[in-house]
UniProtKB/TrEMBL annotation, chain A:
<comment type="subunit">
    <text>Heterotetramer; dimer of two heterodimers formed by FARSA and FARSB.</text>
</comment>
<keyword id="KW-0030">Aminoacyl-tRNA synthetase</keyword>
<keyword id="KW-0597">Phosphoprotein</keyword>
<protein>
    <recommendedName>
        <fullName>Phenylalanine--tRNA ligase alpha subunit</fullName>
        <ecNumber>6.1.1.20</ecNumber>
    </recommendedName>
</protein>
<keyword id="KW-0963">Cytoplasm</keyword>
<keyword id="KW-0067">ATP-binding</keyword>
<keyword id="KW-0547">Nucleotide-binding</keyword>
<dbReference type="InterPro" id="IPR045864">
    <property type="entry name" value="aa-tRNA-synth_II/BPL/LPL"/>
</dbReference>
<dbReference type="Pfam" id="PF01409">
    <property type="entry name" value="tRNA-synt_2d"/>
</dbReference>
Automatic annotation (TrEMBL), chain B:
<dbReference type="InterPro" id="IPR005147">
    <property type="entry name" value="tRNA_synthase_B5-dom"/>
</dbReference>
<dbReference type="InterPro" id="IPR045060">
    <property type="entry name" value="Phe-tRNA-ligase_IIc_bsu"/>
</dbReference>
<dbReference type="GO" id="GO:0006432">
    <property type="term" value="P:phenylalanyl-tRNA aminoacylation"/>
</dbReference>
<dbReference type="InterPro" id="IPR040659">
    <property type="entry name" value="PhetRS_B1"/>
</dbReference>
<keyword id="KW-0963">Cytoplasm</keyword>
<dbReference type="InterPro" id="IPR005146">
    <property type="entry name" value="B3/B4_tRNA-bd"/>
</dbReference>
<comment type="similarity">
    <text>Belongs to the phenylalanyl-tRNA synthetase beta subunit family. Type 2 subfamily.</text>
</comment>
<keyword id="KW-0067">ATP-binding</keyword>
<protein>
    <recommendedName>
        <fullName>Phenylalanine--tRNA ligase beta subunit</fullName>
        <ecNumber>6.1.1.20</ecNumber>
    </recommendedName>
</protein>
Length: 499, 562
């Protein structure tokens, strides 16, 4: 609350006038700083409509420090003139004066003084006129008395150039009576206190209104990373659809489970060091189900189970090589093998976890990402079933318009890329990959011949980047993650009503 | 996925009709191709080398088409057009025939035993009375390149050499010699080089240097001579200049040398099926004989047609449709798999042509039927699979700290590129500290946590390593805030129902650890077992991560709670 004295004086001033008063004039008449009046206006405004204050701004000219000096003591050239006696003054003496240098050249160009260079004892300066008219000082005095109107723009600008004048913008309030004008003000309470509640004094009090425009205080809370939020949603969708989560806590996998068991031939480019991270320690896996391994070897090198095979020299040394898994399908392979060792019951599995690829890093690719994968194994599943289940899955994500493109994948046949129609881009965009696992993968595991396994996969990062409008994956994943983005990102809902 | 570039107008001319870009895109989609880009030579050069270089280039429209990695028969204009025309029912798939030469004496390629040490296999064939135009010639060269890039695994499995048969005379000898003993004028060079000189010459060749490693370290290099000692090629690196193909070439001798004979046969079949179209007797290929060191003789190309029998019920059941046997036979025929109902029940006999090496199982035939039917015409059904869902335990700790989620392998790169660290992380703390360093502009305090897996060596696992789930948290502020991190541990334990007692519960006790400030580190014990540490970080650690404030941290194993 501003000084109550000033507030009351201000209110009485306003009461007397018909229209209003200017805050600058009030400050001048009361002999206080303008800011004090501004403070009083602000505190009156906070009380409601006692006064109305309209912000005005005006420009006016002010003397600079140098200008003030000149207005008081005369221009430098005038001072030079008046400091020269009749018998003249040595130039060296003149230059010792504070105004000497500037005043000398101006006085010379005004032809008020002359220099006798041949004078004995050095150059000497003499007056050339008897009296002078110090116009600069007079002009500045006009400004000082606020009679700037009498000066021409040109003159003002010249003085501004000489840094004697400056133009300043002054903000002031035009203050007039408000709707509920009154010269007496009651002190308002800021908050309800325990005492007021206890003794009922709140009934008599007036309370200061809240500023509902202001933000509240941020709660001290944690924030989950957007990828985790989106992952939770995908888990939820799978669980709703009756899928069981696979244990995916094995980043290090043997080539056998990652490739060979999936009927991916050993010369396949994905098994190249350009695409996959190989481990140097532990470099090799040392334990495999032997009879299964023999069946895998046979189906690759000779065929069988109705297949021609790839007809190449399959090597255990390749299968042993440890890698960072390139897909979670390696986990699915282990799970399906495990399933085949028991009496078959239909299953629906899912996983969401990290996979690693030796990619060229750019704004949308990192050496690792999260793969979302769904797998269904049952008797007599059809390609139509795969499309149907994909339709249900994507409907839960808010994506209803799907179509399928034939594709190639070494371990699924048929293979289908899933496209959805993007309303914004007005085109079909790829949203995932899917297929029916090949018999060459399933039969060596020991699964019954009439069991089909359908599967699909997509990345977690891409839907997250789209959902949260992130363009650079490095901002999302890795230590360069933008914490402000983590703090600000909203909850994730993927259901159709909010997508 | 290989990408094939074809001139649009040439393609439409061959297809016998024009399409709008959208129509052609749609056709590709149905057929499992992808119209990846519509561009021109000019556009490509201007994008890669700048506008100034592109001024003279052609602005003929090019279609860049993505082809599935196992469809080698679609890697050139000729194959694409044939595949699409058969698919659209405007052409019957041609029959490819191997014929004996009119002279009666086939060309012979004799393999000597020395090749066993480096590249033991070879196959060969002759295209007789072929007519090249500039476009056909370009496509012929381009197909070799595409095959080399894909099925040939950058020439390591198979390398193709094509020669003007009228400049050389058989029988040909495929042998291997020490590099110093091989000397010839290689393609597009003006003088002779020894193989040793060639290897150093091509070290700087942007194209050929990628293939040198295949034979570089071998004591002998593969080489093919004609009966007069003229070098045809030094596979898999370069052909001789003497026998090079020109637009005027009428008779082409094709040899493929290989470490994988199955792939060599496929590659040879692809070359001859695609380009025998331009022979005076279209789709006929003159046989060549290959004699192995053990005296066994083989006739190539194989051009084998294989017959498979399957039931229409199988296809209907796997795809989820209900079509007649005749209709399914028609569908398959449209995929270049000539098929007919045998009349025995619902049996269909399917003939797999030499161009379809990708068909290795009945499921491949089933997929082709589904493609011809149209994936998007198949009714979408819901499987009746009944299951009960289960989930892995995800600890939902949400304790006022923020989770930045970081990479497992920050600087991991391949063995072949210039690599620095090759470690999967074994601790979470450095990553969180790096995250703070990258977010120094954020207001204090910074409170971060991460629950994630690290990788540890473990001999008891089949792969020799296992994941271990960790919980890590840091508090970064003007004061170290040990009490904050300690409180976080207490709260975590409370949520996990572990009481603060020695023995059965958890407790912490002073420990020495160079990561932490002396006297400000404690070890965490849960049920008597050490699970991790917490404390105030050592200033040297703080400095090394380019941080300036005190920091306390906690890292512990949470496997016991999963």
């Amino acid at each position: 609350m501003a000084d109550t004295g000033v507030v009351e004086t201000l209110l009485r001033l306003i009461e007397k006038v018909d229209d209003g008063v200017d805050s600058l004039e009030v400050a001048a008449s009361l002999g206080v700083d303008h800011q004090v009046i501004v403070g009083a206006v602000k505190s009156l405004q906070a009380l409601g409509d006692i006064i109305s204050a309209e912000l005005r701004s005006s420009k006016h000219w002010e003397l600079t420090e140098e200008g003030t000096e000149i207005a008081e003591q005369g221009s430098h050239e005038a001072r030079v003139f008046s400091s020269i006696p009749l018998e003249g003054l040595a130039q060296s003496e003149l230059m010792k004066l504070s105004f000497g240098k500037i005043g000398f050249s101006k006085a010379m160009s005004n032809k008020w003084i002359r220099v006798d260079k041949s004078h004995e004892g050095g150059p000497r300066i003499f007056k050339t006129v008897e009296s002078i008219d110090d116009q600069v000082r007079e002009k500045l005095l006009l400004v000082k008395k606020a009679n700037t109107a009498q000066l021409e723009e040109k003159e003002k600008n010249e003085l501004k150039k000489r840094k004697l004048l400056s133009e300043v913008t002054v903000k002031s309030y035009w203050i007039s009576k408000g709707i509920s004008f009154s010269t007496t003000i009651t002190k308002q309470e800021t908050e309800l206190t325990p005492e007021m509640v206890a003794n009922g004094s709140w009934k008599e009090k007036k309370f200061k209104p809240y500023n509902f425009e202001a933000m509240g205080v941020a709660p001290d809370c944690g924030h989950l990373h957007p990828l985790m939020k989106v992952r939770t949603q995908f888990r939820q969708i799978f669980l709703e659809m009756g899928f069981t989560e696979m244990p995916t806590n094995n980043f290090i996998e043997s080539s056998f489970w990652n490739f060979d068991s999936l009927f991916q031939p050993q010369q396949h480019p994905a098994r190249d060091q350009h695409d996959t991270f190989f481990l140097s320690d532990p470099a090799l896996a040392h334990e495999f189900p032997q009879d299964y391994l023999e069946r895998v070897k046979k189906v690759h090198s000779e065929g069988g189970f109705g297949s021609q095979g790839y007809k190449y020299d399959w090597k255990i040394e390749e299968a042993q090589k440890n890698i960072l898994r390139t897909h979670t399908t390696a986990v699915s392979a282990r799970m399906l093998y495990k399933l085949a060792q028991q009496k078959f019951t239909p299953v629906k599995y899912f996983s969401i976890d990290r996979v690693f690829r030796n990619e060229t890093l750019d704004a949308t690719h990192l050496a690792e990402f999260h793969q979302i994968e769904g797998v269904v194994a049952d008797y007599g599943l059809t390609l139509g079933d795969l499309m149907g289940i994909l339709h249900q899955f994507f409907t839960k994500l808010g994506i209803t318009k799907l179509r399928f493109k034939p594709a190639y994948n070494p371990y699924t046949e048929p293979s289908m890329e899933v496209f959805s129609y993007h309303e914004g881009l007005k085109k079909w965009v790829e949203v995932g990959n899917s297929g029916v696992f090949r018999p060459e993968m399933l039969l060596p595991m020991g699964l019954p011949e009439d069991v089909s396994v359908i599967a699909w996969g997509l990345s977690l990062e891409r839907p997250t980047m789209i959902k949260y409008g992130i363009n650079n994956i490095r901002e999302l994943v890795g230590h360069k993650v933008n914490l402000q983005m983590v703090y600000d990102s909203p909850i994730c809902r993927l259901d159709p009503n909010t997508a | 996925m290989p990408t094939v570039g074809v001139k649009r107008d040439l393609l439409f001319k061959a297809l016998g009709r024009t399409y709008t870009d959208e129509e052609f895109d749609e056709l590709c989609f149905e057929f499992g191709l992808e119209l990846d880009e519509i561009t021109s030579e000019k556009e490509i050069i201007s994008r890669e080398q700048g506008d100034s270089k592109a001024s003279g280039a052609s602005d003929t429209i090019l279609y860049k088409i993505d082809v599935p990695a196992n469809r080698y028969d679609l890697l050139c204009l000729e194959g694409l057009v044939r595949g699409l025309q058969v698919f659209k029912n405007t052409l019957e798939a041609p029959r490819y025939r191997r014929v004996s030469p009119s002279s009666g004496e086939p060309q012979k390629l004799v393999i000597t035993k020395e090749t066993a040490a480096v590249r033991p296999h070879a196959v060969a064939a002759v295209l007789r009375n072929i007519t090249f135009t500039q476009e056909r010639y370009d496509s012929f060269i381009e197909l070799q390149e595409k095959l080399h890039q894909n099925i040939c695994r950058l020439r390591s499995l198979v390398a193709i050499g094509t020669h003007d048969l009228d400049t050389i005379s058989g029988p040909f000898t495929y042998t291997a010699k020490p590099p110093g003993d091989i000397s010839f004028k290689p393609l597009n060079q003006t003088k002779e080089y020894t193989a040793t000189q060639l290897m150093s010459l091509y070290k700087t060749d942007s194209h050929l240097r990628h293939y040198l490693h295949i034979i570089e370290d071998k004591p002998v290099y593969p080489v093919i001579y004609d009966s007069n000692g003229i070098v045809l090629s030094m596979p898999p690196i370069i052909n001789g200049d003497h026998s090079k193909i020109t637009l005027k070439t009428k008779n082409v001798f094709i040899e493929c040398t290989a470490t994988d004979v199955t792939k060599a046969k496929i590659v040879l079949d692809m070359m001859v099926t695609m380009f025998s179209e331009y022979c005076s007797q279209p789709f006929t290929v003159e046989e060549a004989e290959v004699v192995y060191p053990d005296g066994k003789t083989y006739k190539y190309p194989e051009l084998a047609y294989r017959k498979e029998k399957l039931s229409s019920e199988f296809i209907n059941r796997k795809v989820g449709i209900n079509e007649s046997t005749e209709k399914i036979a028609q569908l398959l025929t449209r995929m270049c798999l000539l098929s007919q109902a045998t009349g025995v029940g619902d049996e269909i006999e399917v003939e797999i042509p030499p161009t379809r090496s990708d068909i290795i199982h009945a499921c491949d035939i089933m997929e082709d039927a589904a493609m011809a039917y149209g994936f998007n015409n198949i009714p979408r059904t819901t499987p009746r699979t009944y299951t009960v869902a289960n989930q892995q335990f995800v600890p939902s700790l949400f304790l006022g700290h923020s989770c930045p989620l970081r990479q497992i392998v920050a600087h991991l790169s391949s063995l072949t590129t210039l690599c620095h660290h090759q470690v999967a992380r074994t601790t979470l703390l450095p990553g969180l500290l790096k995250t703070i360093a990258a977010n120094r502009k954020m207001p204090l305090p910074l409170k971060l946590f991460e629950i994630s897996d690290v990788v540890l060596k473990d001999e008891t696992k089949d792969v020799g390593a296992r994941n271990s789930r960790r919980f890590c948290a840091v508090y970064y502020n003007k004061s170290p805030g040990f009490e904050v991190i300690h409180g976080l541990l207490d709260r975590t334990m409370q949520l996990l129902e572990v009481k603060s007692v020695r023995g059965d519960g958890y407790h912490i006790q002073a420990a020495d650890d160079s990561t932490f400030f002396p006297g400000r580190c404690a070890e965490i014990f849960v049920r008597g077992k050490s699970v991790g540490r917490l404390g105030v970080l050592h200033p040297d650690v703080i400095n090394r991560f380019e941080l300036t404030m005190p920091c306390s941290a906690l890292e512990m194993d949470i496997e016991p709670f999963l």
